[in-house]
Amino acid sequence: MQPASKRTLDHSQQRGKSGLRDPHRRILMRIIFSVTAVTLGLFSSLQFTAGNYWLASLEAFGCLALVVGMFRIGTSPYLRRWIIGYLIPTFSFLVLITVVPKASSTAFVWAYAMPVLSYLLLGKKAGLLLAAPFMFAIAAYHAVMFGDFDDPASLIDLFNPLICGLVILLFIHLYETMRAEAEDELVYHAETDALTGLPNRSRFQATYDRTLEEARRSGIQFVLALMDIDHFKSINDSLGHDAGDIALKTLASCLVQRLRSTDFVGRLGGEEFGLILRDTDMHSAQKLVDELRQRIAAMPIFYAGEKFHLTVTFGIASWPRDSATTTGLYQSADRRMYLGKHRGRNTVVSDDAAEADSQHECQQLRANNAD
């Protein structure tokens, strides 16, 4: 059960990526941009005073670019490009201030900031690939310029920063590996229904919102299906809650196995489930959902020597035919699901026909927590 449900969650969330998540990356990049802009502005003034006009101009240009970036990074869809566009010039500049004539002998210490920034902003693999060459370049130059291989005391001074840099790089790599794994585990448990292993209501809602936004941009329609188990309360009352738990697990497994990799399913609470069928019209979705309904009805469930079956009722609504908003589409599917309950259960309802005559009964079903 666990592997199947994880596939459903992994598809939508892309778990396993290291580094900070996008909202945190944006916040951190704004802070970095602002701090770097202030720093470059200050150093530009100092360089101009010292007569290094070309370096002062370069730093002033960088300061201006970062100010623009502070306002763009929050909403830009090209976040990774902004990050790489910042890190490569920044790391190149750190190499430059190390190798310029009359450079400070301690300028190399800025290399220690490289793995911290690159790992947080790009993740473990890309961060290592970006930071390592720059750190190696600074280390090689420092060794050539300041190393006296015939003097033991000089070798100590040379190897101290080199070994320190290697230890920092190794520590950051191990830390990011463990941090990413721990965060993934926390997020998985926070967004997963403990009983069925399916995404919970919170995760389903986030995926639903994102799916609608993607549909608005691409124009590709999708279908929302809400499903409720018929007479589930009677199963708990007659066979016990353990039997009900087994029924929920078996049903969840059936849903995951039948749906396509592009679809999404979650447990919304109790005996109610939600399905997002992407790139699908109403006709195709109705066939798929009705096949699911029949498969569930034919599926035997065993508990304590007893065999029983489930039936389910679906209400489905298509974007943008039934509504162009998340709330409106959900209400359409929910209304049709309860309409199916009123019509006798074990059915799929994809339209609002006869809704006016049964609206009162549907509301009564909700109020009475119908099975």
Automatic annotation (TrEMBL):
Residues 361-371 have a biased composition (Polar residues). Residues 1-20, 351-371 are annotated as: Disordered. Gene3D superfamilies: 3.30.70.270. The keyword Membrane applies. It holds the Pfam family MASE6. It comes from the Bacteria. Residues 220-353 form the GGDEF domain. GO terms for molecular function: diguanylate cyclase activity. Its EC number is 2.7.7.65. Its cofactor is Mg(2+). It is an enzyme of class 2 (transferase). It catalyses: 2 GTP = 3',3'-c-di-GMP + 2 diphosphate. The keyword Cell membrane does not apply. PROSITE patterns: GGDEF (PS50887). Keywords: Membrane, Transmembrane, Transmembrane helix. The chain crosses the membrane at residues 27-46, 52-71, 83-100, 106-122, 129-146, 158-175. This is diguanylate cyclase.
